[in-house]
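Tutorial, part two.
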Amino acid sequence: MVTGTLTILGHYAFVLFDCESSHSFISSVFVQHVGLEVEPLGSVLSVSTPSGEVLLSKEKIKACRVEIANHVLDVTLLVLDMQDFDVILGMDWLSANDASIECFGIVCIPKVISAMKASKLLSQGTWGILATVVDTRESEVSLSSEPVVREYPDVFPDELPGLSPPREIDFAIELEPGTAPISRAPYIMAPVELKELKVQLQELLDKGFIRPSVSPWGATVLFVKKKDGSMRLCIDYRELNKVTIKNRYPLPKIDDLFDQLQGATVFSKIDLRSGYHQLRIRDSDIPKTGFRSRYGHYEFIVISFGLTNAPATSCDEPIEDVTLCRLDVDPTVVERLIVRQVADDFIDDDDEQLSHQSRSNDDK
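Running the prediction step on this input gives:
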């Protein structure tokens, strides 16, 4: 038994879709309740119910409009004294509309006809509606179509090509007076971590980011698991950071940045690929980055994660580039900073850029 609630002449009705019924019926109680107009049948029709009872139908509602699955269809309903349902749609309606009953979804769907049959029906004066489906989803942005990417392909590589060129200002590690070199014994690692350590050390050597060291400084190394399950190599520079003179560079405040963006609707974001590794360490300070591992003693030539003052330097360097760019109108090629290719970063009108403001307001 397939039932449902449909709209009959603008009124909700409890409907039974009955393949065993030869005709379609409407409850006399529903007719009186809604106030529908009826007309007499040419002759009295005897109707046998499943319980064996015989009911008589003397009236009908012609061209009664039934709404189903966003379709409006006409049906002639015979008035019958029944109590369980407001309307019964029988084989006369199902056959006339080429409808099939999908029992799994408990819906009644008019059968789809071919284009030739539709053309024939339209030529005979059948009422038709033309509708089109429009894909409102935003098309995926292709980075290759961005003019800036095409003009400067060397700025958007998949990986850093190697050691960055020398810049005017290198990262310095200024120590408190009287500080002696600090060295710690390596942490114990599991076999899987030792295997990963060997791989990542070789990658850093191949790229020129680290080199073998004989420095008296020796930090320890450990791994931190990322969200995707991979392991990030971290150097424990906490002892070095304790004796490093802190850089009081004024990092930009998020509220100030949003004040400058008042009225803006489209945002562009440039995310430097491994930004720390694009900034070199001052030659005299390279030995201070020394770290000890199972596979040898190494030191960083570029900024490593975990060094104090690194955020201020990494923030100051791009800002200086942008200041120069405003004169040259060429922000991406100043000193050839390498940028990650993220399509949504170039033209972004969503709320991601404004999420900090929402969170800060919540905290207040």
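The chain has two domains: 2-112, 143-363. In part three we will examine how such features are distributed along the chain.
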